[in-house]
Amino acid sequence: MSMTAPIVQIVDDDRSFLTATSRLLRASGFAVKTFSSAGEFLAQLDTDAPGCVVADLQMPGMNGLDLQSALARSSNPVPILFLTGHGDIPSSVVAMRSGAEDFLEKRAPKEKLLDAVRRAMARDAQEREERNRQQELRARFDILTKREFEVLAHVVQGRLNKQIAGDLGIHERTVKLHRTAITTKLGVQSVAELTRLTDEAGIFTASAPTFPKGQ
Amino acid sequence: MSWVTITWSMIASACLTLAAINFLTWCRNREAWANLFFSLLATGTTAFAFCELGMMRVATPAQFGTVLKWAHVPTWLIVVSLVGFVRLYLKAGRPWLAWTVCGLRTLALALNFLVGQNLNYLEVTRLRSIPFLGESVQIPDGVHNPWMLVGQLSLLALVIFAADAAVTVWRRGDRREALTVGGSVVFFTIASAGQSILVLWGIVQVPLTASLSFMGLVAVMGYELSSEMIRATQLARDLRVSQAGSRENEQRMSLAVDAANLGIWIRDVARNKIWASAKWRQLFGFTSSEPLDFECILRRLHPDDREVFQQVLTEALAGVGSYDTEFRLSMPDGGLRWISSHGQVEFDATGEPVRIRGASRDITEHKRADQETQLLRREVAHVGRVTMMGQLASALAHEINQPLGAILRNAEAAELFMQDASPDMDEIRAIVADIRKDDQRAGAVIDRIRGLLKQQPLNTRELDVSELVGDVRALVRVDAAARQVKLQVDVPSDLPLVRGDRVHLQQVLLNVILNGMDALNGATGGERCLRVSALCNETQSVEIAVSDTGSGIPADKLVHIFDPFFTTKPNGMGMGLAISRTIIEAHGGRFWAENNATGGATFRFTVPIAERVTTK
Question: I need a labelling partner for B68 at 20 to 30 A (CA). Which of A130, B133, B206, B407 fits?
C-alpha cells in the first residue's frame, strides 16, 4: 500500500565497487541505497520499501547466500540479484534455486545489469501488488463469522444446502440464511463469483490444512 | 731262576713287545718313521739285554770276548736308531752331528770285528766271579783295546747331538718334548756310557748293566710316542666335532641364503672360472650344467647396463675390494629382470685379486613397485601444481575483477552522467579519481603476483657440459627404463666449459628429456630412442640437442610450442618449454625446435662458452 518509490539497495564489501555501481544505477534513473555489509543491510531493512537488492556473493562475515535466506524469511522479501568476482557454479546454482533474480559477473555489460535490475523491480512490483490484493481480499473475508466461514467452505466445493445442513448439523433454512449473509457481506452476485473471489484471496488454498473436514 | 735272569728277561720281553707294536704301527702307516726307529731301538735293547745276561753267565774268557763282540751289533743299532728317532721325532739336531755319531759308531763296529777280541779287549784273560743281586756273575779281566775310545767318542757325540737338538726344541717353545726326549737321551746315554766305561776299564767291579739305561730310554720314548698317539686321537675327535659344526653352519647358511632368495657365486679371477649356486643359475637363467665364465654372464646383462657394471667391477678389483650394484638382465625368454648384486674381492699377499665372492638377489618386484610409486608421486605432484595454479588463478581473477568491475561501472556511470544537459562535473571528477584509484589497485595486484612468481637470480658459474648431461641422465635413468626408452648420450669430453646456472640448466635439460619421453609414449613401432648430444658451434657457445624418434611436431604447432599455456598433452600445463626458453635466453643462449628429416623432433639450445676457455 506504500507509495514510496522503489529503491535499489546495493550490498558489497568493496567500497569502491559499491560507489561505482550506485553511480551507474543513479545515472540510469534508479533510487539507490548502499550498504557495505549484509549485517548493516538487514539492520536497516525497511519493512515496506519496494525495490530490489543487488548483493556481492562473496563477502566477509555473512555472505550473499546467507543474506538471501535471511531476506526470504523477512516481512519484505524483495527480489535479490547477485554479483560475483568470477563465476562460481555451485554458488550460482544454490542462489538461483533459492529464487535469486539473476547471477551476474561484476564486469557484466551494463545492459545486462540494468535489465536485471529492471526485471527485479518489475517482479517486486508485481509480487507486491499480488501481496496487497490478497491482503485486501482477505480483509473482506475478515467480516464473516466463524459459522459463515464454515458454510462458505462447503459452498465453494459445490455442495447442496441439504448436504451442508446435514454435515454441520443445522437446519437447511439456517444454511440459506448464512449464504445470503455471505453474499451480502462480500458483495457478490453468484456462487461462481464467490468461488473466484475465494480463490483469488487464497483463503482455502493457503490454509487448507486447517480445514481437515473439507474433504 | 734268579733276580738277574728275571730282570733282564723282563727287560728283553718288554722291549720286544714294544718293538713289535711299533713295527706294526709303522707297517700300517709308512710315514710314522719315528715308530720304526723306536721299534729298532727297542729291538736293539732286547738283543743287548740278552748279550749282557750272556756275559754274566759265560764259563770261559774266550766266550766272554765273543759275547761282548756281538753285543756291539745291538749297540750300533741302538745308537743309530736313537739318532734317527731324535731327528724325526723332535725334527731337530744338526745333520753333520748325526752323521758324525753314526759314522763313529759304524767305525767302532768295524774295529770291533777287526782289532783284537772285541772293541773293548784285545784279549780277555780271565773271569772273576762276583756276587750280584744274590747271584754269582762273571766279570772279565784282560788287555784293553785302545780303539775302545772310538766307541766312547761316538757316545759323547750322541750326547752332544741330543743336547743340541734339545736346546733347539726348547728355544722353539716345545719345552716338554725338549726335556723328555732330549733330556732322557742325554741322561741315559751318559749313564750307560759312564757305567760301561767304569766297568770295561775295570774301575768298578760290577757286570755291565747298560740295558737298564737303554730300557729307561725305551720307556721314555714309548711314553712319548703313546702320548703323541693320544694327542692325535684327541685331534681327530676335535676335527670330527668341528667338521660336524661346520656342516651345521653350512646348513644354517644355506637355509638363510634360500630364505633371502640369494644366489651365491664365487669367481676365480685368474682362471676365469665361476661356481654358482642352483638358485643363482635359476636367477640368471643358466642351466645347472652350463659352464660359466665372466663373458657369458656379461652377455646376459642388459646392453645398457654392461658398461656401468664393468666399471663397478673394475674399481672393486683395482682395490676398492667390494661393490654393490643393480642391473637388468635380458632373459633368454625376452623378459627383463632386475638384480641387486653384492660382491667382495679377495686379494693375495701381493695385492692381486684372487677371487670374488658374491650374492645376487632378484629385485624386479621391488623395482616395479618403486617405479609405480614414483609415477604416482609425479602424478600427485602434477595435480598439486595444477590445483595450486588453479587456486592462484582464481584468487587472481577475484582480486582483479573487483577494481576492473568498479572501473567499468564508473566509466559507464560517467557516460550516462555526461549525457545530461548540464552534467554534474563534481560527480564526474570523483568518478575519474576513483577510476584512477582502481586502476592502481589492479596494478598493485598484478605487481604482487609478479613478485610472487619472480625468478631467483641466476647463479652462474663455469660448468662442464658432459657433467651436466651426466647428472640429468642419472636423474632420468630409472624413468627411461620404466618407459622403455633407450637413452643415448653422445657428449664429447673435450667440450669447452660453459657459463650458466647449474640448477636452471639441469631443469631445462630435464624438461626437454621428459618431453622427449612423452613424445615417445605415442610411438609404438620402431626404436624408442632419445639421443642427447652436444657440440661446440662457431658462435662461441655449446649447442645441446635432444632428439627423439617420436612422431614429430605438427607444422601448425611448431610456432606455438614455446607459448605459455600451450600444450598438446591432456594433463600438461603448457609452461615447461616457455619457462625453459626464458631460462636459456636469460643465459644469453637460444632455444628452438625442429622436426627431423628421419622422423621425430629435435630440441636445441645453446649456452655461451665461459670466457676463460682460451686458457683451458
Answer: B133
Rounded CA-CA distance B48/B29 in Å is 28
Supply angle C-alpha B97, B102, B108, rounded to 5: 125
- Chosen for mutation from A8, A16, A110 (greatest number of chain B CBs closer than 10 Å) is A16
Q: How many CB pairs under 8 A join A and B?
A: 72
B614: Cα separation from own chain's centroid: 47
What residue of B is the nearest CA neighbor of A56?
A: B402
Q: What is the pLDDT of residue A195?
A: 85
Chain B residue numbers with beta carbons less than 8 Å from the beta carbon of A82 are none
Q: Which residue has the cell 575483477?
A: B401
pTM of the model: 0.39
Cell triple for B338 = 632386475
C-alpha torsion sign, points B20, B26, B32, B37: positive
Beta strands in chain A (DSSP E): 7-11, 31-35, 51-56, 80-84, 102-105
On the 0-12 / 13-18 / 19+ scale of CB atoms within 10 A, B168 is middle
* Least Cα separation, residue A4 to chain B (angstroms): 25
Who among A28, A106, A107 is closest to B416 (CB)? A28
Q: Is ipTM > 0.85 here? A: no
Assess contact for B468 and B610: CB atoms under 8 A: no
Minimum mean pLDDT range among B6-20, B33-47, B72-86, B377-391? B377-391
Contact B401 A85 (CB under 8 A): yes
Torsion over CA: B560, B565, B571, B576 (sign)? positive
Which residue of chain A is at minimal alpha-carbon distance from B419?
Answer: A27
Amino acid in position A5: A
Segment among B62-76, B447-461, B575-589 with least mean pLDDT = B447-461
What is the rounded CA–CA span in Å between residue B177 and residue B450? Answer: 97
Which residues in chain B have their CB less than 8 angstroms from residue A23's CB?
A: 409-410, 413-414, 417, 427, 431
Largest CA distance in chain B: 186
User: What domains are there in chain B, each with its CATH number?
Assistant: 3-234 (1.20.1070), 260-362 (3.30.450.20), 368-453 (1.10.287.130), 460-615 (3.30.565.10)
Interatomic CA distance for residues B6 and B501, integer angstroms? 111
Interface contact B413-A106, CB threshold 8 A: no
Query: What integer pLDDT is reported at residue B259 of this predicted model?
Result: 80
d(CA B438, CA B432): 10
CATH (residue range A143-214): 1.10.10.10
Chain B residues at the A interface, defined by Cβ less than 8 Å, are 394, 397-399, 401-410, 412-414, 416-417, 427, 431, 434, 437-438, 441
| Residue contact A17–B431, C-beta within 8 A | no
Q: Do B402 and A58 touch (CB under 8 A)?
A: no
Cα torsion B432, B436, B441, B445: sign: positive
CA distances from B120 to A83, A118, A140, B501 (A): 148, 163, 179, 110
Distance from CA of A19 to the nearest CA of B (A): 8
- Residue length, chain A? 215
With CB atoms and an 8 Å threshold, state whether A20 touches B416: no
* Contact status, residue A54 vs residue A75, Cβ threshold 8 Å: no
Fold of A7-137: Rossmann fold (3.40.50)
* Spans of all domains in chain A: 7-137, 143-214
pLDDT tens, residue by residue, B506-549: 888 888 888 888 888 766 666 788 999 998 887 788 999 999 88
Question: CA A178 to CA A184: how far, in whole Å?
Answer: 10
Say if strands B591-595 and A80-84 run parallel, antiparallel, or are unpaired: unpaired
CB contact under 8 A, B412 and A110: yes
